[in-house]
């Protein structure tokens, strides 16, 4: 009888309504963050972020925060992704490269917000890429996925009109800058040593590249693209 009485006090929570949570995210987080491109708004209302999150964290998929992924990676917070896409403003017919495509959320949103893009996604982690490919089978079936080092980009299919990097870097790798078309742009969070992380637009120039800061963003560094620690004799003095 005692066990039966205890079982009667177990509270069962109803499953989370992800669709409703997605709409609340857009109305409470995305629109107030100066995101007014209707294409971005429509894409974020449609693409299920929970399917890009680890199963154990899906209930937090629509919180205003980045979510941890394996090996130091992260699923970038929705507000930052939305403003990145608004900044990038992809146009029909453009060739797009997404570096550090991860679990596919940015890739799926990009494809959903603008028809007629030719998108390549590069990811070094096969486990993350498998999640991203699963998401994209429904929401971005024409995206071409590639497994390889993030710093290399995808030179064989360059140049690209738009390159997106989903994660912060100290600086844009020169190999990726070289894959940007002369009149193209790179949109990425850049976090210089000792500075503040900001989403920037980087454009090629005859002398290298020019960087314009768009907005500050607390985005985790991509471990694979972080520079190796410099050797210093002072550490051993």
Describe what this molecule looks like in 3D.
It is globular and about 60 Å long. The protein has a single domain, classed as Vaccinia Virus protein VP39 (Rossmann fold, 3-Layer(aba) Sandwich), CATH 3.40.50.150. The protein has helices spanning 2-7, 18-30, 38-46, 78-88, 105-113, 126-139, 174-177; strands spanning 67-68, 74-75, 95-99, 118-123, 144-147, 160-165, 180-190, 198-205, 208-216. The protein starts with a helix and ends in a 21-residue tail after the last strand. A seven-stranded mixed β-sheet has the order 5-4-3-6-7-8-9, with helices on one face. Strands 1-2 form a two-stranded antiparallel sheet. By secondary structure, the protein is an alpha/beta fold. It is built from seven helices and nine strands; from the N terminus they run H-H-H-E-E-H-E-H-E-H-E-E-H-E-E-E.
Structure characteristics:
7 helices; two-stranded antiparallel ribbon; alpha/beta; Rossmann fold
Shape: globular
Q: Structural class, please?
A: alpha/beta
Termini separation comes to: 72 Å
Order of helices and strands: HHHEEHEHEHEEHEEE
Report Rg. 20 Å
Order of adjacent strands in the largest pleated sheet:
5-4-3-6-7-8-9
Low-pLDDT runs: none
Task: Tell me the name of the CATH class.
Answer: Alpha Beta
What's the CATH topology label?
Rossmann fold
What does the average pLDDT come to?
92
Beta-strand residue fraction: 15-25%
Number of domains: 1
Proportion of residues in helical segments:
25-40%
Number of strands: 9
